[in-house]
User: Fold this.
Amino acid sequence: MGSRIACHFAGIGLQVLLLDMAPTELTEAEKAKNVPLDHPAVKNRIVNEALTAALKSNPSPVYHKDVVKKIKTGNFTDNLKDIATCDWVIEVVVERLDIKQSIFTEVEKYRKPGTLITSNTSGIPIHLMTEGRSDDFKKHFCGTHFFNPPRYLRLLEIIPTKFTDPEVVDFLMNYGDLYLGKTTVLCKDTPAFIANRIGVYGIISIFNLLDKLELNIDEVDALTGPVIGRPKSATFRTADVVGIDTLVKVAKGVYENCPADEAKESFVIPAWLDKMVANKWLGDKTKQGFFKKIKNEKGESEILTLDLKTLEYKPRVKPKFATLETAKPIEDLKMRLKALCVGQDKAGEFYRQFHYGLFAYISNRVPEISDELYRVDDAMMAGFGWEIGAFESWDALGLKKTTEAVKAAGYKVATWVDEMIAAGNNSFYKVENGKRLYYDLTTKTYKAMPGGEAFIVMKNFESQTVWKNSACRTYHLGDDVLGLEWYTKMGTIGGEVLEGIQKSISLAEEKYKGLVIANEGNNFSAGANIGMIFMLAVEQDFDEVDMAIRMFQNTMMKVRYSAIPVVAAPHALALGGGCELCLHADKVIPAAETYTGLVEVGIGVIPGGGGTKEFVLRAADEMHDGEPETITLQNRFLNIATAKVSTSAYEAFDLGIYKKGRDFVCLNPNRRIAEAKRSVIELYDEGYVMPVQRTDIKVLGRSVLGTFYAGINGMWRGNYATDHDVTVAKKLAYVMCGGDLTEPSIVSEQYLLDLERQAFLSLCGERKTLERIQSILKSGKPLRN
Assistant:
């Protein structure tokens, strides 16, 4: 965990000193080489091996491979003195108070006054670590609980003691949000803090329901995954990843240290779980837990599920519940939750009992673990990957009606909830004038969520809708800036989204400063609506395909050549058409976790919405004396031909998708839309002038085309490319070289767009292309044919 935290800090540009213990004995390999125990390589072996293991892990803990250059390693014996040069020291040692206190005794010898000292403990009370420390140490000491893996799980719990300087708390809350990209949640120094207290209750309560309702592991994971807005790992897979021993430790800690917890008995560990710990079936760390991967008789990997009655592993069985089948087609999560909770089968009963217990529990934790209810929801969304928080789920099911049902089911709801409802309040959250408000227990009024203008949520501006169709909406975000979002499945871009982009730009050109294009779905965009292209191609209606591609190209060109600035703010997947949109925007504000690339070759076509044209244009602009002209074009060609996707927004700069000095990575995805709005205003105030279409693009023609063809044939001969890969790659090469021109020439954007469209159309007539598209539509998996 320490190595991963170091990687995250290095990833935002800081110099990091990573320390660990020096070994007390040599390995067999070191003995064989007669290396002394005090050799630097030996003394830093533990820390270097931990860092290497972290860097090799998948998913990667770093945004970019060069990040490791900012991490210097050392050991406690030789290098603890070096913390005198550091501004922040984070302790991430084993969860034992005596060891942590001994480390802090050494830290205090070398730290300079004013240095921040924080602990990443997940269970030890923070105030106990301050015993025996100086006043300056106590003043600058705090708990900072990162969730693992720290790059991807966005929760950072800040836990001050009574000695912590309020300015230190304010700094950590702000720094974690603005620079580390975290959802920073202020916690009280209570057992398990917020996220683990609620999260472990939720998991243990599900364990109890499993026995009560006679459900099995596969059934519970089917009920508690994405269908209710939770990660794919659901309940039991999550437990395997976290570590079953860790889960048990936190549960026992709550049971032992929270005597006033009304649900204390819920944390009693089931006998079968104790048996698993005794057997050391602890999950992924021991290669078996609730699930176990084996090789079957055919030599294929197979995942088995533990039968909790017999404690034997058996083949997985896909569960079937009528309630699930009814609710799954419902796109809106809040509406889906309503459908799930009224189900009349075992699944419906599970959802009711689970939610009723959860709602009662969270109501009684406020103000015990947090004075503000929104912090509970923030912690669960950022730490456990919940799509919406528990209080928001309660709102979705109907506060008053559900509260009555919770009581009727035998659960005790906190008094403040009854008082809130009696006063005429019918929700924990509400939206007014584009701002989200939460119910405040202390004042018994609604207060604005912290962050203000820094956190723009598109849907909060629904009352300020300027235009809409069935796929998207255009909002007035204030300050004469429009915002466009769409809510198609996977963020796919079809005719209605293209209409929305064109209409939003036209509206902005009439009387606004500019346009922000973003959305708040799980993904920005997985690309164009290939289902429509597939149907038209199968019917051989190529005139309609041609019109569809022209519309896509024209829309992207309108993004580029409009009278107002257009800023895109992508996140998560921004593939194919989503990437092309970003390529044509005036500026891009991607979330750090944005995975983008031109992936069209995977379905047997080339980028047809201006993406191929744009890569040729950028390659031409990057050509310079002293370097072969083919180098930049070849790099661009390979990025498309191999469907290269960036593993972070930072890597997208290397791929030439984002531009250095123009585009800006937003570490905190919640800030990207506000940053995009600010960029629109900034571009407008600087005197934005509509660009002029390019007619000066240098293409290299036949000589380079021959080189590309030779390389493609070489890949085919080496069995690295299929016949159809060759067909697609040669079409791509033809477009990127400007066609079969006898010599390098100067062409226009429209010339390249026409070549791009013609290549796309011809590939849509290929049977193997249709097979690839069909595979994606049916299974979501690419086909190599």
